[in-house]
UniProtKB/TrEMBL annotation:
A UniProt-annotated Pfam family: ABC_tran
Protein's organism: Catagonus wagneri
SMART domains: AAA
Protein's gene: ABCA4
Keyword Repeat: yes
Protein name as annotated: ATP binding cassette subfamily A member 4
ABC transporter domain mapped to chain residues: 24-255
Classification via InterPro entries: AAA+_ATPase, ABC_transporter-like_ATP-bd, ABC_transporter-like_CS, ABCA, P-loop_NTPase
Length: 283
């Protein structure tokens, strides 16, 4: 990816369509951890829109978690600004947090709280009354399919279920801006699909930012895809736009030995069994 997205390869940014409402605006964001070190985030400019899922794609160490940590106010930027609903994260974090949800890259769950207690806890933390929190808990348990594990302590859930709970928590309390850092990492294909369904169900009215390593996931879920490498944004746009920029389509190469086919044709005479066709490479 590094050589492909050479800094000179600019121009892979789709023009913004009219009518989109910006949910999160990242402006000239820089994060340097060590003095004089290479920036983890390097003059990043990107807008995430309401009613959309933006897939934030990039290799290990690209700066995804660092960016998302600054967006959610966990880390201060070295320079640059992040605006959520027009408010600066650095100065108005208390107001912003009310409508902000986060699923961190590594689950942060309370070992001895049950699934239901987690949702109740976070709903009340976001300002819901006991009654409202209970209603929300029932809805979330239903949507996530976790209702049959409602009384299970988090420490006894499988890794995939813990991840699902972490994703669900990010949406609790009517969060309008939801940041998900690799929500499907370490999750089996079946649970991954149910997390996808959950994200699509919860998308209306929200600005969802989801980091991932999976191109298929970005393609399927992302209304927009933004690709970051070495702290810099190299392209962003709808999946269709990016396919137009880079895609040459998919080629399926099927390989079968001609000799075998011929042998098969005369197989009854010479008694040769056909070999199984082998799948070639997908390039
Ligand atoms: N607390 C820290 N102190 C020093 N350097 C850090 C710190 N956190 C991140 N980095 C560095 O910043 C760069 C970006 O890291 P980051 O975790 O944001 O990448 P990422 O895209 O989330 O990677 P991954 O896909 O592996 O999660 C890396 O070079 C990393 O070593
Ligand atoms: Mg990360």
């Amino acid at each position: 990816m590094h050589s492909f997205f050479h800094p000179k390869a600019m121009g892979f940014f789709e023009r913004e369509l009219p009518g989109l409402v910006p949910g999160v605006c990242v402006k000239n964001l820089v994060k340097i951890f060590e003095p004089y070190g290479r920036p983890a985030v390097d003059r990043l400019n990107i807008t995430f829109y309401e009613n959309q899922i933006t897939a934030f794609l990039g290799p290990n160490g690209a700066g995804k978690t660092t960016t998302l940590s600054i967006v959610t106010g966990l880390l201060p930027p070295t320079s640059g600004t992040v605006l959520i609903g027009g408010k600066d994260v650095e100065t108005s974090l208390d107001a912003i947090r009310q409508s902000l949800g986060l699923c961190p890259q590594h689950n942060i769950l309370f070992h001895h709280l049950t699934v239901a207690e987690h949702i109740l806890f976070y709903a009340q933390l976001k300002g819901k009354s006991w009654g409202e929190a209970q209603l929300e808990m029932e809805a979330v348990l239903e949507d996530t399919g976790l209702h049959h594990r409602r009384n299970e302590e988090a420490q006894h859930l499988s890794g995939g279920m813990q991840r699902k709970l972490s994703v669900a928590i990010a949406f609790v309390g009517d969060a309008k801006v939801v940041v998900l850092d690799e929500p499907t990492s370490g999750v089996d294909p079946y649970s991954r699909r149910s997390i996808w369904d959950l994200l699509l169900k919860y998308r209306p009215g929200r600005t969802i930012i989801m980091s991932t390593h999976h191109m298929d996931e970005a393609d399927l879920l992302g209304d927009r895809i933004a690709i970051i490498s070495q702290g810099r944004l190299y392209c962003s746009g709808t999946p269709l736009f990016l396919k137009k920029c880079f895609g040459t389509g998919f080629y399926l190469t099927l390989v079968r030995r001609t000799k075998t086919i011929q042998s098969h044709r005369v197989g009854c005479k010479v008694g040769v069994c056909p070999e199984r066709p082998s799948l070639g490479t997908i390039t």
